[in-house]
Design goal:
- By secondary structure, this protein is an alpha+beta fold.
- The chain has two domains: about 15-55 and about 145-210, no CATH class; about 60-145, no CATH class.
- It contains six helices and six strands.
- It has helices at about 10-50, 70-75, 90-100, 145-155, 160-185, 195-210; strands at about 60-65, 85, 105-110, 115, 125-130, 135-140.
- A six-stranded antiparallel sheet has the order 1-6-5-4-3-2, with no helix packed on it.
- Strand 5 (about 125-130) and strand 6 (about 135-140) form a beta hairpin.
- Helix 1 crosses helix 4 and helix 1 (about 10-50) packs across helix 5.
- The chain is elongated.
- The relative contact order is 0.13.
- The mean pLDDT is about 90.
Length: about 210
C-alpha cells in the first residue's frame, strides 16, 4: 500500500491568485451597485459647488379647498389647542387625496388653524386648515430639477427610504474604495507610479485645505 500523500501547502502564487479573484469580484460588484449613485453625486457635487452661478426660477402653485363637515367636526373636536401633532388619519388621507403633499409629518396646531409643513426635495409646500370654517389653502413651490437633485445629494427632506439608500450606497462605495486599495497594493510591484499617485491624491486636497481654507 502506498502511504497517503499530504496535501501540499498553498503556494504564495496561488494565494495571490485567490485574493485577486476575490478582490476583483467584490470590486466590480460594489462598482455596479454604486455606479449610478456615484454619477449622481459627482454631477450634483459640481452643481452644488456652482449653486450661485446656476439660477433657479421657483414656480409657486396655490390651491384651495373645503374640508368636508364630518372631517371638520373631527378636527374641531380634537383636543389640541397648541403644539405639534399629526393630523387625524381620515383628515390626513383627505389632504393627500386633494393636495400634492404627504400628510404624515407633524402639523402645528393652534386654536384657530392647523398648519401642515410639507417640505420636499427641490421645493417646499404647506397646507393650512381653518378649524372654524374648514377652509383649506395650500402653496407648493418647485425650484426645478437641479435643486431637486441637489437636495437628494444632501438628503434634505427626502424621507427614510432615500436615507436608507444613501447608507447602502455609502457602504458600497466603501467596499469599492477598500478593494481598489488592495488591488493597487497587489499590482504595485509592476506599476511604479501607484503609490506616488495615491500620495498625490492625499497631499493635494490636504495642501489646499491647509493653505487656502481658513
Amino acid at each position: 500500500m502506498h502511504a497517503p500523500t499530504t496535501p501540499r501547502p498553498a503556494t504564495k502564487k496561488s494565494r495571490k491568485a485567490f485574493w485577486l479573484k476575490q478582490l476583483h469580484m467584490w470590486h466590480w460588484m460594489s462598482s455596479a451597485i454604486s455606479l449610478i449613485g456615484l454619477l449622481l453625486f459627482a454631477i450634483t457635487g459640481f452643481t452644488l459647488n456652482h449653486a450661485a452661478d446656476i439660477e433657479a426660477s421657483p414656480v409657486v402653485t396655490e390651491k384651495a379647498g373645503q374640508l368636508p363637515p364630518p372631517l371638520l367636526r373631527q378636527l374641531a373636536s380634537a383636543d389640541r389647542a397648541d403644539g405639534k401633532a399629526p393630523l387625524p388619519k381620515p383628515v390626513a388621507t383627505w389632504v393627500e387625496d386633494n393636495f400634492p403633499v404627504r400628510a404624515s409629518a407633524e402639523a402645528e396646531w393652534s386654536a384657530d388653524e392647523v398648519y401642515l409643513p410639507a417640505p420636499r426635495p427641490g421645493g417646499d409646500a404647506w397646507v393650512a386648515i381653518d378649524r372654524a370654517s374648514g377652509a383649506v389653502t395650500s402653496e407648493i413651490t418647485s425650484r426645478g430639477w437641479i435643486s431637486y437633485l441637489n437636495d437628494l445629494h444632501k438628503g434634505r427632506n427626502s424621507g427614510g427610504a432615500w436615507g436608507l439608500f444613501i447608507d447602502i450606497f455609502a457602504g458600497a462605495c466603501l467596499i469599492f474604495a477598500i478593494t481598489g486599495l488592495f488591488l493597487l497594493w497587489l499590482h504595485s510591484a509592476k506599476r511604479k507610479s501607484t503609490w506616488p499617485l495615491v500620495g498625490a491624491g492625499i497631499a493635494i486636497p490636504a495642501a489646499i485645505a491647509i493653505i487656502f481654507i481658513h
